[in-house]
Amino acid sequence: MPAPTFAAQVLQTLAAALLLISFAMLAERRSRRLVTLLIWQGAVLVTSTLLVAATTHLPHLFFSAALTLVLKVGVLPWILLRLMRRLGIERDNEPLVNVPTLMLVGLGLVIFAFGLAQPITALATTVMRHTLGIALAVILLALLMILARRKAFTQVIGFLALENGLFFAATTTTYGMPMVVELGIALDVLVGVFIFGVFFFHIREQFDSLDLHHLESLKED
Amino acid sequence: MTAVLALVGAWLLVGALGLLRPTGIGWVARVLFPMGALVGLGVAAIGAVALTPAFVAQQVVLPLGLPDLPFHVRLDALSGCFLLLLGTAGAGISIFSAGYFRAGEGTAPGLLCLQYHVFIASMAMVVLADDAYLFMVAWETMALSSYFLVTTQHRLPEIRRAGFLYLLMAHIGALGILLCFGVLHGGSWQMTFDAMRASPLTPFWTSAAFVLALVGFGAKAGMVPLHVWLPEAHPAAPSPVSAMMSGLMLKIAIYGLLRVSLDLLPPGPWWWGLLMLAMGVGTTLYGVVFAAVQTDMKRLLAYSSIENIGLILAGIGLVLIFRTFDLRVLAALALAAVLLHAFNHALFKSLLFLATGSVMHATGERSLGKLGGLIRRMPWVAAFALIGSLAIAGLPPLNGFVSEWLLLQTFLQTPRIPLAFLNMIVPLGAAVVVLAAALAGYVMVKFFGVIFLGQHRESSLATARDASWLERIGLAWLALGCVAIGAFPQAALDVAGRVTQALVGTMAQRGPSLWWMAPVASNQASYSGLWYWAGLLTVTAVTFILVRGFFRARSRRTAPWDCGYPWQTPRMQDSAEGFGQPIRHLFGPIFKIEREVPQPTDRAPSYRIQIEDRFWVTCYRPLGRLIQGVTERIAVLQGGQLSVYLLYSFLTLIFLLVCVL
């Protein structure tokens, strides 16, 4: 196996940073800090995409990097911060499972993701093939975060992190999705966040809180 | 062909026009329903044209439907026969509805008009459909529109419950039919009936298709044990709708059964016919016995419909048996009896349901125990109901006699079947059919006698008013049909012969002349409606003249049947329950009876009886409980916690990924 190029080494470092941020999000309890972490995640994503675009000379990757920058570093965090201010959210409650346990489960998931990616990386030829395991791990960790949180707001952040992971996986294995698909997904995420925002207000109006265990009373007996 | 499609479109248009003035009862009743009746006459005329000897089946592909799946329609003798039925009885019901529906009863009249005409148009489309796709679309439209009609009084919870039961059974039936068509196309994925006729199927799959069709159409027709919706839905609906459902919709189910078992499927093994016959005979007996103990007049008629459907199914069973052994003339005779009985039942059952509608409007009562003596207050309705009752009881010279007589004649021909086993079993069926016919007479005596004869059981009945003239026209039209078929049965047999020609290749013998009907052989059995009428009228006239002319001086007026009592109160009359009591005793094990009998010492004695369908207790309730239990187990999954739901998807994802690994 030839030694990886400099660009590939940088990319792997960035991927590791992404994974680290995911773990940090899993452990973070303050909502404001979560949004900051999300911005960082977006920034890392933009950098890695730019790097891939520079090494492979694929013009559409520049576009998608720009799109990511605008959407994930700019617009979405801004919307989220605004929502936070209007809803008056400062800190999340304790997660459903305590943080150390969550970390251990997360570690298990990462190992699982790497095992899963093993046969695929053996086949792939792209520059970033070793990072697929990390991308899968980011996705699974984001799912775990959605699972373990009580508040609707944190779950939306988890959802956005999930989307980041998917995007990363796409650039890793296939140098990104076709432009049309990417635009569509970007629009979906944007609209999704708007809809979540509306729902937040409705949920709060109904239950005086964004805590989701209130929704349990909706179950039909 | 285009004409009949235009007429179906006209029905839909009439229905849609009802929406112009949703609450305008005058517009809907005085203009739209009579228009619908005219369209019905047109449909009947086209059906009659399709039954002329010169007519050739026509096929059209409509520019409607899904892109690669256009609608095919076809008009042949069998469709024509059922269009004639639909148009004739439909016209009568429509003109009656014009006088019947009033503002402020449940659904707004304009909406009702739409549902009504969509219902009748969809029935016509079922009959015309020539591919499984259009057939199912029309079939489901029929089920849905009739569901809305049944739940016209949707504010009452028991009516919503009846409607739900009906919809449930309709869906179970539709599932059977859908699966049946799924088998019939034989892997070719051609949904036209032509392709289904040609598709090569192994005997196992033809039998599977037959059984599925029997279940599917049987559920709609009210075959025991799939009949439970019928006694609930018919009384719940407004009377013209009950008449349409009982008189027309059950016949459309019979049409489907005939189309699949005689047209689409090749002749099958003999047990098909035997199965159908057994179901039919069981249904007949069950229906009539339950009819005898009912105390609600519409429930009584609903059970009587079950009985008549049983007769028709038994007849189809005979057709299938004869077809298996290639006894074509006999198959044609049985099929003619089936078609004729279907037609007759459409006429007299609609007539009786409409008559109960008039009675209900005049008195506000449905329970037999509170009616009585209405012949004096409502002579018109009573006269028409009498004709209907006599016809349904199978008395000559009316139409019910003709078809039941034909059916029994067919039963008598069974010794010609070359299988000894069937030779022994089929006559047993004949015995049950005769028993049922006799009991049907008993039921109708109860129906007519308790409602119209005797004294008023409630004082409020003294103010009851007769039906309006539009209602009378509707009743008279249907009664006229009963009398006409009774007087010219050989003409009806001729018409049915066109259908038998197309389906089984020959037709029953029509008899020596226009006046006599001798379907088997003129030296074996023959009947003439006209001569019977002539005899009847002569005897009556002679008796009348003799009594009036010779005994006038010695006649006196007195209260009838007072058995020497000095006075009589309405409470001393035979009640509906009393009349049904012998049947309740004889067939006791069939019923599940709950009874409260007062003690002799009671100061305020009360009597209550509730008769339940045993099928509810033995089949449907355990089945319902089983489903309830299983779903409760499954419902544990729905804990209400959002994170648990998310965990489900998470674990599923992990599981699938492991599978990939």
Could you walk me through the main structural features you see in this protein, from its secondary elements to its overall organization?
The complex is a heterodimer of chains A (221) and B (661). Chain A is mostly helical and 221 residues long. Chain A has seven helices and no strands. Chain A has helices spanning 6-27, 31-56, 59-87, 99-123, 132-148, 152-174, 179-207. In chain A, helix 1 packs antiparallel against helix 2 (31-56) and helix 2 (31-56) runs antiparallel to helix 3. Chain B has a domain at 587-598 and 605-660. In chain B, 68% of the residues lie in helices and 4% in strands. Chain B is built from 23 helices and four strands. Chain B has helices spanning 2-17, 25-50, 77-100, 109-128, 132-150, 157-184, 193-198, 203-221, 230-236, 239-264, 270-292, 297-324, 328-363, 374-377, 379-392, 399-412, 420-452, 469-487, 489-504, 529-550, 576-586, 614-635, 642-660; strands at residues 58-66, 69-75, 592-596, 608-612. The interface between A and B is medium-sized, with 20 and 14 residues.
Strand and helix layout:
The complex is a heterodimer of chains A (221) and B (661).
Chain A (H helix, E strand, L loop, with lengths): L5 H22 L3 H26 L2 H29 L11 H25 L8 H17 L3 H23 L4 H29 L14
Helix pairs in contact in A: 1-2, 1-5, 2-3, 2-6, 3-7, 4-5, 5-6, 6-7
Chain B lengths: L1 H16 L7 H26 L7 E9 L2 E7 L1 H24 L8 H20 L3 H19 L6 H28 L8 H6 L4 H19 L8 H7 L2 H26 L5 H23 L4 H28 L3 H36 L10 H4 L1 H14 L6 H14 L7 H33 L16 H19 L1 H16 L24 H22 L25 H11 L5 E5 L11 E5 L1 H22 L6 H19 L1
